[in-house]
What does this fold into?
Amino acid sequence: WAAAHVDDVARYYDEHKKEYDRDTEVHIRRVLVRKPKEGGDAALAEARAKAEALLAEARAEGADFEAIAREKSEGYYKNYGGDMGWQSKENSSPKDFEVYAALTAGQISDVQESPIGFWFVRAEEIKPAMKKTLDEVRDEIGTILAGEAKRTEAARAAAEAVLAKVKAGAKLSEAAPMKQAPAPAAPEGEAPEGDAPEAASPEPVSTLESTGPFSADRPAWDRIPGIGKSAELAAKLDALTAEAPLVDQVLEVEGRLFVVALKERVEPDDEAFAKDRETFERRLRIGRANQLFGNWKAVVYGPVRQREVFRRFTGGALLDVLDHAEGVRLNDELYPPPAAPALPEGAMPIKLN
It folds into this structure.
């Protein structure tokens, strides 16, 4: 396969180069005791002693490093059980990475001192450095891509079969294939690892999904909710009707295959809009107020006059009739009002006060 698809193999290698050409990476958990800001040498010695005591606790037989970090460490990673993720030369300081790289999996370092405090780490896992050329992994990549191509071919055949059934008169809900729902996880502590779950596997579920309603004038016109970015599909939407709801081809969007049909089209309704107009106006006015006055802190902590102008504007007053008193700051130059749409030929402008 690799010999027949040289360009595909090279492209995969370039896109996944970090998997084949990387420095050593170490998955690190850390326990940190911050240096005190006050107290002098005595407080500093106390912080170091605390770190040494925690190190002894972490090295004790049966100790749970993650629990110790979560309960007794300090700093950002405390809430994650000390988990700092994968560390490498790229995201660590040279001095810190020297400590990490010297560890074997499961080993705990000695206490280290840095400007922020006293700390020690445990190496959870290690990815050794790898330097493999394209020629060394060509067959390996070929096997990966051949498997992907086979799965894609099977998926497209299944999608084309669904499309053919719908074109022949079946409902999409009937033609959509079923998939096995994942089995529910056993409650913690009730199913030893390796035991078969006692509960029966869930019944298969349909692969049919709905996007939910979305607007024709959405900001990102080519992004379809639940499907992804597809200019091809977006261009076909206007032609779909209740009488002809089916997109007549299988569409590939962001690596997935779709058979698409219109579920419902709701045309604009002036009466319904009139009912919701007040809500729309309020949302637009609040959005415009955020542009003009800045965030809530600028209003809450700004001059009293500015707060009054903000209150009146969000309450419905037109901006051009409000006094621009000294001390009132507006972002109206940065965010000018949108231009009014052109009037139809022969129409007379109307100004509202």
